[in-house]
């Protein structure tokens, strides 16, 4: 199971601080992006990060209504993967092509309550499907066990598609997610609310 630290921040210096804590211990970091519309939080904009260059690769999870308005700035900052929501607005096939032109891998995320059928038009165009196991928004929301059944159903129909899960992941549900077909989890609050995020990350990786 791959463990990816997730960071959702409104202040540039706090985002950089969290990256500095974890970057030498992982191969990939996820930066969560909010626009104040798709989720209530407005997160750090790329231009506020200056010459930000983590030691490791990073992806961005665009929890935004119009992902096409965000992708270029994050790609130019060095993002290697862009994850957008199937519930987003705009021409999503064109958006995927835009990501490819910027040399970014592409993931598609689905929020709780959205049918797996909504993913179907995009499955041949993306590299990964990410199931949110919380309602999108602030880190620390409760894990929604009913999403596990959606993951199981999707994995049965698309066994070759890489699956990630994001939200509320901890030592109590990690094995359940893995059994459902998840290969990668994105972990936010469980890391950042712990006294030692690096030790917590290592502990999760041994499960």
Describe this entry's structure for a reader.
The protein is α/β, with parallel strands linked by helices and 207 residues long. The protein has one domain (2-205): TIM Barrel, CATH 3.20.20. It has helices at 12-22, 71-77, 92-101, 146-157, 174-180, 189-192, 197-205, and strands spanning 2-7, 28-34, 57-63, 81-85, 105-110, 128-132, 163-166, 184-187. The chain has an 8-stranded parallel β-barrel, surrounded by 6 helices. The protein starts with a strand and ends with a helix.
Beta-strand residue fraction: 15-25%
Number of domains: 1
What structural class do helix, strand and pairing data support?
Answer: alpha/beta
As for the CATH topology, it is TIM Barrel
CATH architecture: Alpha-Beta Barrel
Mean pLDDT: 95
What does the radius of gyration come to? 16 Å
Pattern of helices and strands: EHEEHEHEEHEHEHH
Strand order of the largest sheet: 1-2-3-4-5-6-7-8
Distance between the termini: 8 Å
What is the oligomeric state here?
Answer: single chain
> Quick one: CATH superfamily?
Aldolase class I
Sequence stretches where pLDDT stays below 50 over 5 or more residues: none
Tell how many strands the DSSP assignment holds: 8
Q: Count up the helices.
A: 7
The biggest sheet amounts to:
8 strands, parallel, barrel
């Amino acid at each position: 199971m791959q463990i990816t630290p997730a960071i959702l921040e409104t202040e540039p210096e706090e985002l950089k601080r969290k990256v500095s804590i974890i970057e030498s211990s992982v191969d990939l970091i996820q930066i969560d992006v909010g626009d104040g519309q798709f989720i209530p939080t407005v997160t750090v904009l790329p231009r506020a990060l200056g010459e930000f260059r983590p030691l490791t690769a990073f992806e961005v999870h665009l929890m935004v209504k119009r992902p096409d308005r965000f992708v270029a700035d994050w790609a130019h900052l060095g993002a290697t993967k862009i994850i957008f929501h199937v519930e987003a607005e705009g021409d999503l096939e064109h958006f995927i092509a835009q990501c490819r032109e910027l040399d970014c891998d592409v993931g598609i995320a689905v929020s709780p309550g959205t049918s797996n059928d909504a993913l179907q038009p995009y499955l041949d165009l993306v590299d990964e499907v990410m199931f949110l196991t919380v309602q999108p928004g602030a880190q620390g929301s409760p894990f929604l066990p009913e999403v596990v059944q959606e993951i199981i159903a999707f994995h049965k129909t698309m066994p070759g598609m890489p699956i990630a899960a994001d939200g509320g992941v901890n030592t109590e549900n990690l094995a359940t997610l893995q059994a459902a077909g998840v290969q990668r989890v994105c972990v936010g609050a469980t890391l950042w609310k712990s006294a030692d995020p690096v030790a917590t990350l290592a502990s999760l990786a041994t499960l």
